[in-house]
Amino acid sequence: MKIAFDANPAATPETLAIAVKRNAQADLSRLEGRTQALVRGAAERARFDAEAGTIAEIFVPQGDGVGRVLLLGVGAGDEADMAKAGGALSGQYLTAGIEDIVVDVKPAEATATAVARFAATAAQRAWRFDRYRTTMPERQKPTLKTITIAGAPESTDSAWRDANAVTQGLDLTRSLVAEPGNVIYPESFVERCRHLEELGVELTVLNETEMGELGMGALLGVSQGSAREARILAMRWNGRGTGDPELALVGKGVTFDTGGISLKPGPGMEDMKWDMGGAGAVAGAMKALALREAKANVVGVVGLVENMPDGLAQRPGDVVTSMSGQTIEVINTDAEGRLVLCDVLTWVQKTYRPGTIVDLATLTGAMIISLGHEHGGMFANDDALADELLAASRASGDALWRFPLSPAYDKLIDSPIADMKNVGPRGAGSITAAQFLKRYIDEGVRWAHLDIAGMVWADKPGNHYEKGATGFGVRLLDRLVRDRFES
Ligand code: BES
Ligand code: MN
Ligand code: ZN
User: Is 264 annotated as catalytic?
Assistant: First the structure.
């Protein structure tokens, strides 16, 4: 689905949507007099109240045929409400048999940024992953080709470029997450990110030999049972010029998580194809930053591994030595994400010396028990960083909720035989996982860990996604960089 901006679209399009603010009279001046009365009456009967995302659909006589008028509620007309309206419009009409919709956004009296969000959210909501469906019924196929926006503020161009960059980043994330494990594995994940080089992103790839030389025993222990080779992919965007990145984004990229020898139960195991959602979000965010030429130096680093059971796989009870030198007793091979991340975190700090690190990981099922699918969990060693993330969360729509860290939880992962074990007791599973990662963060580095286990995949559609891969994290990270690292 395409977005077009046109100040003077056809006078009587077949489908015309008109933005209406809460408590405002709908501006029907584009319609003929008798049609105006029909639309007003119909909207009243339908109890249309212009809340953001509500739509009153009215069929109207048009020449010898039938046209369609959509009154599109935009609530207050601010950024969040405009996003809601854009998502609702494309969600509702994507497969409705219509090819084109003209939207008059002028009555929303919205800023350029809010109109750009409207357009971008409409585009985001239209993303689908149908590539393996060869016998899809015609009625289920998307028909909507273009949403043409009329009445946008004159300065919408640059806001639209930025918002569209986020949409492109989301598309990358979603396709990485939606692809099954036989298609996306460490090497193919890297290949799917190659095109970032054309946008000016510098890529560095580590193979298993190089990781071995660096002493990444924790990450390699996870990979050991897989026929696929692990990779670390670093994506560097130097939008401010030369110099160390001020921000590092780190992603868990377990391209498939069987649990290893601590094998997961069969039912639902297929979901573990999206255990690379953190890595996917990092790749998508880097794409967004590059496309909009963000004025910040950011590096995105993802640890790509497949967790499989096999004759060579690591055993419960094995002790591995991480790149940091700290040793780990692997009690449960299914707690593999932290084993991958700890070595990536050490390497990132050694290689790039970032002042701030944000990691994203589908780390614990316990996070879904805590927060369901409504918030990602956030842990931070710095209150200012936590607040920056919460602000970015509210502005972007990617919801976060902060969790505690403390020495009392840290104690729970002490091991009798090594420096730590990779699991704690049953309680506070998400927190002990975060405490584990914290042991790999250098003094003075601001760090936040986002456990997004419940957020990367959805069983029902949301405002800006179809069911399936949500792209959680891309909008959040883009917003964080824009608000905190570009001024
Ligand atoms: N990838 C899973 C976490 C997960 C589970 C994400 C369900 C999304 C949905 C992670 O590697 C894992 O298996 N964690 C274990 C940790 C446990 C062994 C301490 C878990 O949550 O059960
Ligand atoms: Mn696991
Ligand atoms: Zn996992």
Answer: yes
C-beta 453 within 6 A of ligand 1: yes
Q: Does the domain made of 163-484 have the CATH classification 3.40.630.10?
A: yes
Atom of ligand 1 at shortest distance to CA of 429?
19
Residue spans in the chain of domains classed CATH 3.40.220.10: 2-154
DSSP 36-73: HHHHHHHHHHTT----TT-EEEEEEEETTEEEEEEEEE
Residues of the chain with CATH 3.40.630.10: 163-484
- CATH number for 2-154: choose from 3.40.220.10, 3.40.50.2300, 2.60.40.420, 3.40.50.720: 3.40.220.10
Average of per-residue pLDDT across 128-153: 96
Atom of ligand 1 nearest to the CA of 334: 13
Residue 120 burial (10 A CB sphere; 0-12, 13-18, 19+): buried
415-447 pLDDT, tens digit each? 999 999 999 999 999 999 999 999 999 999 999
pTM of structure: 0.98
Atom 18, ligand 1: which residue's CA is nearest? 335
